[in-house]
Amino acid sequence: MPYVDTKVILENADKHGYGVPALNINNLEFLHYIIEAGIKMNSPVIIETSQGAMKYAGNGDFRKGAEIFVKMVRTFADEANIPVALHLDHGKSFEYIVAAIKAGYSSVMIDASEHPFEENMKITKEIVKIAHAAGVSVEAELGQLAGIEDEAVAAENVLVDPEEAKIFVEETDVDFLAPAVGTSHGAFKFKGAAKIDYDRIKKVKEYVKRPLVLHGASSVVPEFVEIAEKHGADFGGAKGVPAEILKEAVKCGINKVNTDTDLRIAFVAGLREFLNGNPKEFDPRKYFKLAREYTIKVITDRMEVLGSAGKADLF
Length: 315
Ligand SMILES: O=C(CO)COP(=O)(O)O
Ligand SMILES: O=C[C@H](O)COP(=O)(O)O
Ligand SMILES: [Zn+2]
Ligand SMILES: [Zn+2]
Description:
Layout: H1 6-16, E1 20-24, H2 28-41, E2 45-49, H3 51-57, H4 62-79, E3 84-91, H5 94-103, E4 107-110, H6 117-133, E5 137-142, H7 162-172, E6 176-179, H8 198-208, E7 212-214, H9 222-230, H10 243-252, E8 254-259, H11 261-277, H12 284-287, H13 289-306
Parallel strand pairs: 1-2, 1-8, 2-3, 3-4, 4-5, 5-6, 7-8
Helix pairs in contact: 2-4, 2-13, 3-4, 4-5, 6-7, 7-8, 9-11, 11-13
The structure holds 1,3-dihydroxyacetonephosphate, glyceraldehyde-3-phosphate and zinc ion (2 copies).
């Protein structure tokens, strides 16, 4: 099953109540690992690239980067017996979003969440019009990803307002919505215990009835943090969203689970461990071996947790 519209994957996930990992890549290696993990687990996969990744892949030219990513992902998708989609993550610039659409991305995100509600809605609506005309589906973000820190009430202000979510989706016709429910990006998500607002997710789901996206969903897997730190990394205080919370979030209505940090940490853990144990090695095909193994492990574990394992059969 080849390259598909992200909407096809997410509507299936919504209908059957499971989550699909949306995994960020910057290069060929991570794409290999994701496709390998997807095939091994018989899971649909969503590959995503940030604007920064587009620029990086094109060696400074983001349009070229977008074209390279589409060619790469299509090549692998055509040979894999699982549904594969390519998504632009956190599109903020009109030029990048248009470049992704023109290059053939399956979907784009317009992240105008730093703007006031009305403005976010206006910008999102504009992008939806352009993207839908090209047959590309759209994700938008509402509220801000600040995280719920301990007892911090202030953070409530930036979490999604379910009533606003309803108006936003009706008004913009966006295909998937990323509501801010307490997570944040990177390896330092919570100062106290990890927690997200389940009731808010349920309410948003009830109101918008579309696939929902959880950003900042890395677990910051202790096993790999430990390996990386044993071999020289310093991630002091890193804390992510535990698997049980992700499972519960999916039950509440989350379908797309954005993960970047976990792949980066697993990779660097394997890379550091290998290089420390093999000081004479300088062939990337060899020194990426353990990094590959750990990254695939983090992805396959994630597919089990979200319930996407085995679901490629539904397409
Ligand atoms: O939300 C993300 C990409 O959009 C990634 O989140 P993490 O930093 O938790 O991996
Ligand atoms: O949410 C953002 C992703 O983790 C990618 O970020 P990036 O801009 O470092 O590529
Ligand atoms: Zn944002
Ligand atoms: Zn994100």
